[in-house]
Specification:
Number of strands: 13
Largest sheet: 4 strands, antiparallel
Order of helices and strands: EEEEEEEEEEEEE
Helix content: under 10%
Strand order of the largest sheet: 3-4-5-6
Radius of gyration: 20 Å
Strand content: 25-35%
Number of helices: 0
Distance between the termini: 33 Å
Structural class: mainly beta
Length: about 170
């Protein structure tokens, strides 16, 4: 599918392959004049343990070889250990649903969401010693559910989400 501003046509030449005819790099999609390359090696994909619940929609975060998933509408966070190919449900239920997950300074953190009355929250809740702590990080100015979140190592960027309507608010 061609998207506006994205160049999808990739032409490979002899310089894209080493002397053993192994592809070295693959140009990725070009957005607004920027280019980057993918790794030289493509690894195989193998089937792993099925998820414990329906995860068609939700939020996810990664911390080293552990992945965390929370389906929309749920208060339960599931952890997948890549090395052991094993799923576990975290023992403490998250206080809000429709949050975004991120690993902030090494702690799994839920950002935003709605309470049991479907009221949006501005809380950032960190998982500390097997329970969710609301006071570990400062709250956002804008309460919201279902935001997009990125943690850069220096700051958390919270984008959009919804309250009564869709939000375009960005907070750092």
């Amino acid at each position: 599918e061609q998207k506006q501003g994205v160049k999808n046509d990739v032409k490979l030449t002899d310089k894209d392959f080493d002397s053993k005819a192994v592809k070295k790099t693959v140009p990725s999609a070009t957005v607004k004049g920027q280019t980057s390359t993918a790794p030289a090696t493509v690894h195989s994909i193998t089937r792993k343990a099925d998820s414990p619940t329906d995860m068609r929609r939700g939020t996810a975060a990664v911390n080293c070889n552990k992945c965390y998933f929370m389906p929309w509408g749920s208060y339960h966070v599931h952890e997948y250990d890549v090395d052991r190919d094993e799923w576990v449900s975290l023992p403490s239920t998250y206080p809000y649903r429709g949050c975004a997950l991120a690993v902030v300074k090494g702690l799994l953190t839920g950002i935003g969401g709605t309470d049991h009355k479907l009221e949006p929250t501005n809380e950032l809740c960190a998982l500390v010693e097997c329970s969710w702590s609301k006071g570990h990080y400062p709250a956002m100015p804008t309460p919201r559910a279902e935001p997009a979140v990125v943690y850069s190592g220096d700051f958390v960027v919270v984008i959009g989400g919804r309250r009564e309507v869709q939000l375009t608010v960005v907070e750092v």
